[in-house]
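Record now logged underneath.
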Amino acid sequence: MSEKNITGVSEQEQNRRIWRGFENFVDRITPSLFELGIWLFGGLIAFNLLVLASLFTIGPADAAIKIATAAFAFALPLNLTGLFLLRMVQELKGASLEDELVQAFNQEGFVSDQIPAPADLDATLASMRTRRVAMVLRSSSGILVVSLVLTLTGLASTLWHMAWWIAIGFLIMLVLSILLVILVLARSQPSDSPKGNK
């Protein structure tokens, strides 16, 4: 038997509700995630192109410049891929490819008994759209992480070419900045108890 929590709902049901709540939350913020992703990939593309152009003028001076050039060159196609995927899904939302597919089969003579009922069809098409959006968001997140690692590697290598201590200082400040963001976000969360009760 599963244990009951305070509200009288089984743990399994509570876990299902938590998962559905998380899915609803992701559905609500999906448009913002797409916009943020497009903005990030666009910024990375511009940054990579600018630094890469500067590195071309230096030439293969030493190992640090070669590593930086390779890292930026490898990151650029990933950024373009991520941007393309995010833009494509946004554009396809308006086009509704699945509806166009059904229409195309109707025009080719498929009769209504060969095509699922409208309710089943709507559920299937909605499932396909949701799956496509989820797949693109997951793929874009992975692409973004790899691209950021390559870009940071290229930037650190470029700074290392100038002086090793500049690259080390950059990496230290990067870690401190991430910790600062985490600290600010943790402190901005509401407290568990109301202010009036102490």
Q: What stands out?
A: DSSP finds five helices and no strands in the chain. The mean pLDDT is 82.
